[in-house]
Design goal:
7-stranded mixed sheet; 3 domains; 463 residues
Length: 463
């Protein structure tokens, strides 16, 4: 089956068959592919963990028409999870951006450049960025321009700038446009004093002006406009180095406390209750031995780490709180964990979208979890977003065959706080109804009360 996100590339496409990932290299891309393969660049990037590994496969050994017409067929290891830039926190996007620049600088040392600057070519293995598109590497022609400059700015730089300059997370905007944040739109937001920044002038304002100018020019003049003078290699490298230094210094502004950013240190559990919760999760994970765990409402990653300690192979965490995600990423990065914390508004998860509504897949269509954790999570949707328990629990159970969900009673201080400024219209929010909803599609393996307020962990197995 062709990977839906790769159909646009005439140089080669990605196929998934029986859990294996293949990439074709079509004849039009063969010369560049061979030059890059023989340059030594790919071995360096693979050794540094910056590029996904590949093995050349005999086309005749692949059943069906997968290799039809291809000059080469490559096989890549399958990554645990495919994520998209609109699911990344600021720090994840920044890490991806710096990895892209580093890879491009290394490539130029081998007389190789990148044909594009798509953020979707970066994925994460745990918290480490890794480049996945070998066909983006092409032979560098002396004096050539950076053809991916605008794409780099709109898919990497501009989303970072709206957070660092204005404190606005990029996620919803990026998800809505998919191709990033257009420079023309960002220019309209910039106050005058920001427009005097040399970096912003070069990489935002001029990009927007050039785009406007090329639109207004007749077609025959556009090539001349873009290639008026050759760009020396040293200048090309300095552009990338300057961007790298600028991006390294970008950080989100101090926006104060977020709702759940301090939850790991400020919750209603006693230390004994926390230990009960950790032990329960650890026992479940040890019993199931899952390769992939999804942790909804992961916060700073306490129970994601607990799952890894209990020998889960990989954990994908989901949360909507930007501060919590930053802390979770720092933790995953510092401790080199197989843990990737991603942005998710569970009340409005990303759907299938793009061309044909298939180019970028929604969560459920993209991958499967072996085990799901939803701890201190369901009441935020049931009480905070008015999602009926039958819908909510049915959705969660559909995502993984096993999991642990937590019931938080109305008497709990957290729910009392949530209800303090609104009418309690949640007559069906009871322990009995919670259990009934689970049992509509799963059996309960074990239950345990883990707090004095009556919080309860429920281990389910889908029928």
């Amino acid at each position: 089956m062709i990977e839906s996100g790769s159909f646009r590339d005439p140089s080669g496409q990605v196929f998934v068959r029986d859990g294996r990932v293949f990439r074709t290299v079509m004849p039009r891309a063969a010369a560049d592919f061979e030059f890059v393969k023989n340059s030594g660049l790919l071995e360096e990037l693979e050794a540094q963990g910056l590029l996904v590994n590949s093995t050349e496969i005999n086309r005749d050994a692949i059943a069906g028409n997968l290799g039809k017409g291809a000059a080469y067929v490559l096989e890549h290891p399958k990554l645990p999870f495919i994520s998209y830039p609109y699911e990344w926190s600021f720090s994840l996007l920044k890490a991806a951006c710096l990895a892209h620049l580093d890879i491009h600088l290394r490539a130029l040392n081998y007389e190789v450049t990148l044909s594009d600057a798509s953020a979707y070519n970066i994925q994460f293995n745990g918290s480490r960025p890794i480049f996945i598109d070998r066909l983006s590497f092409i032979r560098y022609k002396p004096g050539s321009f950076w053809l991916g400059h605008r794409q780099f700015c709109e898919q990497f730089l501009n989303p970072l700038l709206i957070r660092s300059l204005f404190g606005i997370p990029h996620n919803s905007w990026y998800r809505g446009s998919q191709e990033g944040i257009q420079s023309e739109d960002l220019v309209r937001l910039l106050p005058w004093k920001k427009k005097f920044s040399l970096n912003i002038f070069k990489h935002v304002i001029l990009i927007a002006a050039l785009q406007k100018k090329t639109i207004e020019k007749p077609m025959k003049e556009k090539t001349h406009l873009l290639h008026k003078q050759p760009l020396p290699l040293a200048s090309f490298q300095n552009i990338l180095k300057g961007l790298k230094g600028w991006v390294e210094g970008l950080n989100p502004p101090d926006t104060g406390k977020t709702i759940w950013g301090n939850y790991a240190r400020n919750h209603s559990y006693s230390s004994q209750e926390v230990e009960l919760k950790r032990n329960f999760i650890g026992n479940v994970i040890q019993s199931l031995k899952p390769k992939m765990v999804w942790d909804f409402g992961c916060n700073t990653g306490d129970y994601s780490v607990e799952a890894l300690k209990a020998n889960a192979s990989n954990v994908i965490g989901f949360d909507f709180d930007q501060k919590a995600l930053e802390l979770a990423f720092a933790r995953a990065n510092d401790e080199n964990l197989s843990f990737l914390p991603l942005f998710l508004d569970a009340g409005n998860p990303a759907p299938n979208q793009g061309f044909g509504e298939q180019e970028r897949q929604g969560l459920k269509a993209r991958a499967n979890a072996d085990c799901l954790l939803a701890l201190a999570f369901t009441h935020h949707l049931a009480i905070g977003r008015n999602v009926p328990l039958t819908h909510l629990l049915g959705w969660l159970i559909s995502l993984a065959p096993h999991g642990v969900v937590e019931f938080v009673p109305k008497s709990d201080p957290m729910i009392q706080e949530m209800l303090s400024l609104r009418e309690d219209i949640f007559d069906n929010y009871t322990e009995e109804h919670f259990i009934e909803c689970i049992e509509e599609s799963a059996v309960i393996v074990e239950k345990k009360v883990v707090s004095h307020s009556g919080r309860q962990l429920i281990w389910y197995a889908r029928q």
